[in-house]
Fold each of these.
Amino acid sequence: MKADDPRMANVDCAIARIGYLYGQTGIQIAEQWVVSHIEALLAVTEGRSHNPAAFPGFGEGTADETARRIIARLLDAGWRPPDADCLDLPATPNEAS
């Protein structure tokens, strides 16, 4: 995405904006976020194996929590879920019944 792309209005994350400005693709930015969150989870898990009170501000340190953090970062970086049509799902829950 280029700096003048109107979709940049969807990018809330300053770090992702900088990545786009320096020519990184959305995939490259996503890879960086995923790697950093997995590395953080591994470091916290290792630290807590020696001292259960380590990293008190990190949160639960679960895979689910890490997945939520990654998704939040991707959304902040301008990623959006696919349209329901793309997934061949009904547009509203009422249509499913």
Amino acid sequence: MDVQGAGIEREYRSRKRSPRAVFLAPALLGLESVYRMAHGHLMPRWAWAPFLALWVLVLARTVLYSWRGRTLVGVRGITVRRAVTERSLTWRDVYDIRAEPVPRAKPPARTCLTYMYDTGGRRFLLPHLDDWQLTDPAAEVAALREAAARHRGMAFERRPETEALIRRASGHRKAWERAVTGGLVAFGGGFLLWVALLFTTDHPPTLLLFLWIPLGTFAALAALLNWRWESQVPAAP
């Protein structure tokens, strides 16, 4: 919804059809993985059943988000409506609104997302204020900031103390993301080792390879990377 010439009352929701490949490819890949796990007898039932539940939950959330998710802007502030939750901030609590590029993203994926930051440095994604629904998200955000400044009673200005909070939150967020990635890599490596052990032993350590090693990897990385959160984000200019 491109409303740069309108007033402060705005609604950003899904109006343009999103690229089908972005949704179909992960959905079909997940379905194929579940089918092979269930019928290939390569993994114990307790290992693939949670994967099926997770796949169903992710698919349901995606559908709900595309139907219900939106960003509502008014004279009082901004309301972010997600798949099942809703969060509102008054203009007094809004620190900044920023259109940010998605690292290493290429079309048809979204390459630009818009985030709202509160005065405590917390970040909130603004649904559908992106390059799937808008031709120029950065220009739309600039117009929104200009219109919002009149209702805030002051312009958007950067404050060192809030920027430090934003950087800290970003460092911890990246730490958790990389810890999850490390856990998934450990799970994948454990699966390959488990398949190899099927040919050399009658009782491969299934629980160890599928549960304890991935959990231990995740916990160790999460503790280390959160402790060294400054290394996860570049220093402030």
Amino acid sequence: MREYRPASFTTPIKLLAPGYQTVKGVPRKIYPEDGELIWCSFKTYGGTERTVNDIYAIEDTAVIETWYRPDIRSDCRIMLAENGAVYDILNEPEDMEQRHKYCKFKVQRIKGGA
């Protein structure tokens, strides 16, 4: 059986783990401005153009593979270190082959406007 081998980790990203603050009795996520630097494989698949309620938006999606870290969760965001683009993590990061060596997850960024 072959061991899982990801692509090379050449893209720097920053992990933005949320903190929680209660505003008027409702907990809200507060994301830091800057996070810890992580190296990963970042593969985009182009954007999907959408017009909903006369609002034009582009959904950028990507797949990230990196070293396994238990602090990467589905409520976190990642930021590209090169240009500052912020992406939401869409799914719970998958621990590849349950070996705690690599993880893989999808991210999405929505941009555009009226």
